[in-house]
């Protein structure tokens, strides 16, 4: 499993909805060192774990769909504790309201659910666990479960005779949000947040200000101003009162 080339593959599937009806992506990471495949899966899920940023007149609050640390620990647990002897690889599924990680093997012989949640180390694959620890994927034996349970309830785990599933529900705020990628490449979105605050400030000063006037004062293109205004409208923060020519903007939040 740790060879540069092997037959082990890890599947990542993405669906359009909340069930398995509409598959839109089906990727396989593997046929290489399990260490490399694990990093690839982590990177893929990190990108999918977008950040939702709520922007108000006074502050910006960011939150991922899934808490990043528990997600990472659950991915590593699903891989390192999977029973590869039956050639059934771990599967990571992304829906529009949750992520589900499934590993084959169930509980270890003699292991109870109480043992499973006790945060004590009972590795199925001891040598694999040791290697994962040596390369820094596992920080401390038995610590992964404690990191997950710090943020989530035990109810996210579904344990059957042959499988262990972890179902992370998305943290979907009821209010409007701005979305950035979960791969920390959200600088452009972050700039947009700041510029939206400037747009709101200009609208507070002059509700009838034009996009051209705002672009000149903010030193950005009129096209970008239009995009920022559109986002503010879609987020319910402003509404247009009257016609495009003679109307004005009203701040609602």
Would you mind describing this structure in some detail?
- By secondary structure, this protein is an alpha+beta fold.
- It has 2 domains: 9-169, Heat Shock Protein 90, CATH 3.30.565; 186-251, Orthogonal Bundle (Arc Repressor Mutant, subunit A).
- The chain is 36% helix and 23% strand.
- It has helices at 34-48, 68-80, 113-116, 126-134, 143-151, 187-205, 211-218, 222-234, and strands spanning 9-15, 23-30, 51-55, 60-64, 91-94, 98-104, 157-159, 163-169, 178-180, 238-241, 248-251.
- The strands form 3 sheets. It has a 6-stranded mixed β-sheet. A 3-stranded antiparallel β-sheet has the order 4-3-9, covered by helices on one side. A two-stranded antiparallel sheet has the order 10-11.
- The longest helix is centred in the last third of the chain and has 19 residues, at 187-205.
- The protein is elongated, with a radius of gyration of 23 Å.
- The chain starts with 8 loop residues before the first strand and ends with a strand.
What is the domain tally? 2
Helix content: 25-40%
Q: For the residues shown, what is the average pLDDT?
A: 84
**Broad shape:** elongated
List the topology elements.
Layout: E1 9-15, E2 23-30, H1 34-48, E3 51-55, E4 60-64, H2 68-80, E5 91-94, E6 98-104, H3 113-116, H4 126-134, H5 143-151, E7 157-159, E8 163-169, E9 178-180, H6 187-205, H7 211-218, H8 222-234, E10 238-241, E11 248-251
Parallel strand pairs: 1-5
Antiparallel strand pairs: 1-2, 3-4, 3-9, 5-6, 6-8, 7-8, 10-11
